[in-house]
Amino acid sequence: MATTDEKRGPFDYSNDPVRPSPHLLVRKDEPFNAEPTLSALVRRYITPVPEFFKRNHGPIPDLDASKHTVSVEAPELPSITSRRFNMSELRQFPKREIIAAIQCAGNRRDGLNKLAKVKGVIWAAGTIGNATWAGATMRDVLLAAGVPEYDDPAVRGWHVSFEAIGECEEDRVYGSSIPLWMAMSPNRDVLLAYEMNGATLTRDHGYPIRVIVPGVIGARSVKWLDRITIQPAESNSFFQQRDYKILPPHVRENELAEWWPRLVALQELNVQSVICEPTEDQSVNGGPLTIRGYAISGAYWRMHVSVDGGRTWKMAELYNTSPSPERHWGWTLWALRVPKLSIDAELVCRAWDAAGNTQPELPVYNYRGVMNNAQHRIRVLPSSKV
Ligand SMILES: Nc1nc2c(c(=O)[nH]1)N[C@H]1C(S)=C(S)[C@@H](COP(=O)(O)O)O[C@H]1N2
Ligand SMILES: [Mo]
After folding, report:
1. Does the residue 312 lie in any domain?
2. Is residue 109 within 6 Å of ligand 1 at its C-beta?
3. Whose alpha carbon is nearest atom 6 of ligand 1?
4. What is the pTM of this model?
5. Where is the Moybdenum cofactor oxidoreductase dimerisation domain (predicted)?
6. Quick check: CB of 164 below 6 Å from ligand 1?
7. Phi–psi pair at 142, nearest 5 degrees
């Protein structure tokens, strides 16, 4: 039940996996929260598993795949009897593989924390990763469990709630929900994934099975999945009812209780782009220089990069291997080669999507520090000063 902002615990973290990547910046040890450096992140279109950010609200469960099951239940739908699927049953559904970027809603929280104190792990811009995910489609599994199509009047406007196994700081267990239409849509590619980048999921990323919701904040992609519930309302979890909402800028801790219920639970990602190379305060010579970064949005986009603080803009070259525009779940990497850079250059990037949405010029504060997609600005140092 989402009742309190008090943390549970303390929990035992002694059985957490060992993570050897030299490219991970550890933001918090317990629970383990880490993101890669931006230069490591932008190096490959598919993010290697050791460098993929890890975002946890408790210890990492150590589950036995041969005993693990996922239940599907709908207590308010008399036509459905609850079912449990074991891992070999889940593997018997047609296997679907997609490329999808997962981004934490708290990505770039550091930018909002500069405006005023925010609550949460202070992330830079590395809590995003692009991977291939394979598993059964949520649609196939729900249909096999007898769930009606989402436009059936019996379930119209309903939600699919996910619950994990394992201890969690803010609630009884980690949970979230997405609308039933999204879970059932053949075009949304929501998965019960058991593979990441062609290999069995690692414990850190949800072994033996997790939800993958492409195009939506990472919080909805529940790891170590235990229960799926089809229900008329959103999940009652802390992470649906209280966290992962954008509070108005004036709201502080003492007003949270009255504000949470008024706000919408975040789902789809906003337009985002970040400069990964060069990095802030990196010394560069006068050029030529290649500026690189990533971008993500729900729809097709264009990338603008400025080397004069946003007065004039150039078009960057885009790289994305997504198979079709309506299945654009992967991120786009972009690059712009500039022949010459002035000594006090300020680099700025902004993406545009097909709905005409772009990134705000300046960040707007919210207490939980979520969804910061302000134009990314960095200053580089002329090499003569070094
Ligand atoms: N069970 C469980 N699922 C979870 C979380 C968690 O703490 N526990 N964190 C969520 C959040 S906020 C994000 S951003 C993604 C991160 O996935 P990753 O650690 O595989 O990168 O997992 C989501 N699923
Ligand atoms: Mo997240």
Report:
1. no
2. no
3. 56
4. 0.96
5. 265-380
6. yes
7. -65, -40
